[in-house]
Amino acid sequence: MACLGNIAETAMLSIVLGTSEEQVHAALWPSVRQELVEPQAGAYRFVHDRFQEAAYALIPEGERPAAHLRIGRLRAARTAPEAIEENVFEIVSQLNRGAALITAAVEREKVAELNLLAGRRAKVATAFTMALAYFSAGEAMLAEDRWERHYALSFALASHRAECEFLTGEQAAAKTRLAELAGRAATLPDLAAVTRLQMEPNDRDIEVGLGYLRRVGIVWSAHPTPEEVGQEYERMWRQIGERPIEALLDLPRMTDPVACGTMDVLTVLVSPAWYIEEDLRRLIIGRMANLSLEYGNSDASCLAYIVLGTVLGPDFGNYEAGYRFAQLGLDLVERHGPDRFKARVYLGFAGWTRHVRTGRPLFRRAFDAAQQAGDFNYASFSGHHLVTHLLACGDPLAEVQREAEAGLGFARQARVDLAVDRITGQLQLIRTLRGLTPKFGCFDDAGFNEERFERHLEADPRLVHAAYWYWIRKLQARVFADDPAAIAAAAKADRLLWTSKALFERAEFHFYAALAQAALGDAASTAERALHLEALAAHHRQLQQWADICPEDFADRAALVGAEIARIEGRELDAMRFYDRAIGSARANGFVHNEAVANELAARFYAARGFEKIA
Fold first, then answer.
1. In this structure, what are the phi and psi dihedrals at residue 297, rounded to the nearest 5 degrees?
2. Are 393 and 507 within 8 A, CB to CB?
3. Phi and psi angles of residue 16, each rounded to the nearest 5 degrees, phi first
């Protein structure tokens, strides 16, 4: 009984002992009377783990493997084929303990297959350490000539093992294994699977991905021309033709294995392309859309449509089509439900909702989906984007701080340093706005130093995303503190604007950079004022473009910047109208923080003109 674990089914004990269930009851009755074991429904259970350990210790160590092997063989033989998967953990745990005694090649191969099945089930349950043990045990069961005799089984065990090594922190072992696998991959779909794994764990070497693409006839430079990008999107629109974007939801499923593998590689390649070349990112996204149109929707197509919105909106100015494609991506993941992309799709669409507040449940769902998939990177980034969302909505700062601290703690525990750096800037903004830093508008406190953190961001080119978000938060803090240094923070953020297409981060940049420019307009010389107005107009045009598409989210910001422009230009009546419009829109749509800013600037406007009572 001790070999079966803490609990043993009576039927299994009967099989192992080769006796009837009545004889099992009789044999265990003395142990029941001594309260060592207790009967349960169809089973017996050791009263305490120590009793099970003591009973197991009574079996001579040299005899234990044979006992486990016998139990495992009996379990496997007596389990119906359709029930093997459900009971695979119990079967494999016994067979693996007696693996050294298995000599027949056919049986060893069968045990390897059972370990593959057990590993997959453990991996789905996010028990990655357990899964890794099963995949390793499965590989150990195969002979040295396994690649010639059992290629598919060997490849599956090795690739799953490498993925679990990444997930459990064994980076060096995983990279070595994948390098070997890349040389052994016998088919393009298998090579695609290896390429995806080689690139996923924060690997910025895009040549790995471009090398695979050359194997399938896609010959790209790391720095494509704008003409190549334009041709890709022209081809996309030609393939769509007269069909509405929403009709693409009903495209057939992609079945071509090479096309599916290529989609997976492009999905991974698009992330490092953010750091390398904007046109490469655009080209990758366009090709993902074209492959979906040509071969049908794959699991990765939902993500392709989501990121397509980040090109069609900011890069081509077609925000309406961008929103419709993003909605298509969400609808596709809800219909077909590929779990590995859910977090990214939810996170991507949350920034496209018609009113920012409606996106909040999607941030929560993104976090949950990422955790369930074992994707701690996106779980951490979901926390960062949730804090961005809460700040944009003007939620109570004490509540936002709690979310930021929780997100920061999760990211630190998951060792996602990029997310840690992103959330750190947010948290310091919240702290200074709450008056928790020694100087209002400055992030410095006992646990944080602006200068040191900025040097940290500048020292590593991979932190450009974190630097972009940090300078936007510093810009906000300086604006609230009426600090002229806000202009310098805006300039820093502006140089990094290319790193992110996140809609609300860009909106915050344009809004607060405009307010910083406006604050300097009055004291500037005529020539300087013209430059400030030129910069203000550019920010206003972008905010107004978004306001035309979604007035609920952006009309208050656009109106307030418009008021500041009118004030500087001496159009006082227009300024009054725009201030009133900004205040009304912010109040109507629940942006209490924007309403406060608009009231403050309007009050200064009226006070400067002698209207003390109105001010």
1. -80, 130
2. no
3. -65, -40
Block residue for tokens 């910083």: 516
Query: What CA–CA distance (Å, rounded) separates 426 from 404?
Result: 7
Nearest to 377 by CA among 401, 405, 410: 410
* Residue 565 included in any domain: no
Residue 90: its pLDDT value, please? 85
Can you give the pLDDT at residue 404?
A: 96
**52 and 46 in contact (C-beta within 8 Å)?**
yes
Count structural domains, the chain. 1
Q: Is the residue at 612 inside a domain?
A: no
**Single pTM value for the model:** 0.77
Mean pLDDT of 532-548: 92
Q: Which of 25, 50, 19 is nearest to 38 (CA)?
A: 25
Mean pLDDT value of segment 536-545 = 94
Q: Which amino acid is at 532?
A: H
CB neighbours of residue 81 within 10 Å = 6
Q: How many residues does the chain have?
A: 615
Tell me, yes or no, whether 15 lies in a domain.
yes
Question: What DSSP element (H or E) covers 611?
Answer: none
The amino acid at residue 476 is Q
CB contact burial 475-503 (16+ within 10 A = b; e otherwise):
bbbbbbbebebbbebbebbbebbebbbbb
Residues 6+ apart with CB under 8 A from 108: 99, 102, 141, 142, 143
CA distances from 92 to 43, 67, 152 (A): 20, 14, 20
Structural domain harbouring 154: 2-166
Task: Name, in order, each residue with C-beta under 8 angstroms of 405's C-beta and a sequence gap of 6 or more.
Answer: 427
Rounded distance between C-alpha atoms, residue 479 and residue 534, angstroms: 19
Rounded distance between C-alpha atoms, residue 477 and residue 435, angstroms:
11
Question: Is residue 204 over pLDDT 70?
Answer: no
Residue found by looking up tokens 């389990």 in the block: 79
- The number of beta carbons lying within 10 Å of the beta carbon of residue 3 is 18
What lies within 8 Å, CB to CB, of 483 at 6+ separation is 441, 477
Q: Cα dist. 66→14, 70, 115, 141, 238 in Å?
A: 18, 6, 19, 17, 67
Q: How far apart are CA 576 and CA 54, in angstroms?
A: 85
With respect to residue 71, please indicate whether it lies within any of the assigned structural domains.
yes
pLDDT at position 245 over 70: yes
* Whole-number pLDDT of residue 502: 65
What pLDDT shows up at residue 8? Answer: 67
What is residue 515's predicted lDDT score, i.e. its pLDDT?
Answer: 96
Rounded to the nearest 5°, which phi and psi values hold at 7? Answer: -125, 135
pLDDT tens-place string over residues 162-199:
999 988 888 889 889 999 999 999 999 999 999 988 88
Token pair 């704008």 is found at 226
pLDDT in tens, 272-303: 887 778 899 999 999 999 999 999 999 999 99
Q: At how many degrees (to 10) do helices 128-140 and 105-124 cross?
A: 170
User: Mind listing the pLDDT tens digit for each residue in 24-66?
Assistant: 677 777 777 777 777 778 777 776 777 767 766 777 788 888 8
User: Could you read off the pLDDT of 319-345 as tens digits, one per residue?
Assistant: 889 989 999 999 999 887 677 889 889
The DSSP-derived string for 188-207 is HHHHHHHHHHHHTTT---HH
CB-side exposure of 169: number of CA atoms within 13 Å? 5
- Tell the residue number behind the tokens 């800037």, with chain if given: 425
Q: What is the pLDDT of residue 613?
A: 67
